[in-house]
Amino acid sequence: MKLIYTFLLVILCGCEIINTEESIASIIEIEAISVDGAHTHSITDAWVYINNEFQGVYPLPTSFPTLNTGNQNILIEAGIKKNGISSSRVSYPYFTSYTIDAELKPNETITINPTVSYSVNSFPYVEDFEGVGTVLEVITDSSNHSLEPIYDNSNPAFGNKHIKSVISGEANEIFECTTADINLPTDKQVYLELDYKCSSTLVVGIYANMTSQVNKSAVIYLNEKEDWNKIYLSLSEIISSYSNAQSFKLFFGMSRDTSQVQNEMYLDNIRIVHEE
Predict the structure, then answer these.
(1) What is the 3-state secondary structure (H, E, C) of 233-267?
(2) What is the distance, to the nearest Å, from the Cα of residue 52 to the centroid of all Cα atoms in its chain?
(3) What is the pTM of this model?
(4) How far apart are CA 209 and CA 213, in angstroms?
(5) CA 261/CA 266 separation, integer angstroms
(6) Are 239 and 178 in contact (CB under 8 A)?
(7) What is the Cα–Cα distance from 121 to 62, expressed in whole angstroms?
(8) Is the bond into 61 cis (omega within 30 degrees of 0)?
(9) CA–CA separation, 159 vs 152, rounded Å?
(10) Contact in structure between 102 and 69 (CB atoms under 8 Å)
(11) What's the rounded Cα separation, in Å, for the pair 145 and 176?
(12) Alpha carbon distances (Å) from 204 to 8, 175, 178, 223, 251
């Protein structure tokens, strides 16, 4: 009987402590993190620090309690899914952080609307397909392939154009297009940003131009997406294995899926980012 009484007392005390904490907590609310300028993005999380102390990673939109009260320095970093993988959430190293001094009051909610921008001044490769002509080179030779710009100004972040490729024909048909040569560091973090949608599996990879040969490596296979999807791909792991490469090319490819009348791939806002 004494044991039961002690157990109940612990529960009651615990509940009282929790209620006390809830009664003095301030609430921080973050609906989304914006990127300065007309850029597409896929910021999924807020990495939050209060007075330089890490609070946690919060999927957006979020609302969370904190026992910090009074004037507080709040720092927020933009989080992404590295390579599109939910279990690989990171603070994107090429966005600036957002800071604000805010007065936190018990039982009150403060709403923060962070805006970040790119932390680098230039990019080694950017293609938004707004220029004249087709800048990607089709390297597979077939009358069943096409690559053409599509005019669409329905979303300002996508500009006025994107690129569309179509593959039809027999089951063994393969479509592939590449960028021009790109100089990339092999000892730094390198990310590829990409907007895409596709009706069948899309492979993204690199060609490493060595002194006497060209090596080809797939970076990722992307499943079909009916709507536009933004992804941040880490190229560092593969690029670092080609430390003697003179330059690199990106490639985008599809294999024919005959369960569909034709297979389609759409690309836009291709951007490579790395430390300066």
Answers:
(1) EECHHHHHHHCCCCEEEEEEEEECCCCCCCEEEEE
(2) 25
(3) 0.87
(4) 7
(5) 17
(6) no
(7) 31
(8) yes
(9) 8
(10) no
(11) 9
(12) 59, 12, 10, 11, 6
Q: Which two three-digit tokens encode residue 104?
A: 């936190």
Contacts of the segment 220-228: beta carbons below 8 A, 24+ positions apart: 220/83, 220/84, 222/84, 222/196, 222/198, 224/198, 224/199, 224/200, 225/196, 225/197, 225/198, 226/197, 227/197, 228/40, 228/158, 228/195, 228/196, 228/197, 228/266, 228/268
What count of Cα atoms within 13 Å lies in the side-chain half-sphere of residue 156?
2
Q: 142 pairs with which residues across the strands? A: none
- pLDDT tens per residue across span 251-274: 999 999 999 999 999 999 999 999
Q: Which residues neighbour 129 within 8 Å (Cβ) at sequence distance 6 or greater?
A: 135, 149, 159, 161, 162, 163, 267, 268
Other beta carbons within 10 Å of 210 = 13
Which runs of E-coded beta strand occur in 60-200?
A: 62-66, 70-81, 89-91, 98-104, 109-112, 115-116, 125-127, 137-138, 145-151, 161-167, 174-178, 190-198
Task: Note the residue count of the chain.
Answer: 276
Which residue, chain included where needed, has tokens 């039809």?
168
**Segment among 10-24, 43-57, 181-195 with least mean pLDDT:** 10-24
CA distance 189 to 90: 13
pLDDT tens digits, 99-124: 999 999 999 999 999 999 999 988 99
For residue 28, what are the CA distances in angstroms to 50, 53, 59, 102? 11, 15, 13, 10
Residue 194 β-bridge partners: 231
| Domains recognised in the chain with CATH numbers | 26-116 (2.60.40), 125-274 (2.60.120.260)
Q: Which two tokens stand for residue 240?
A: 């670092």
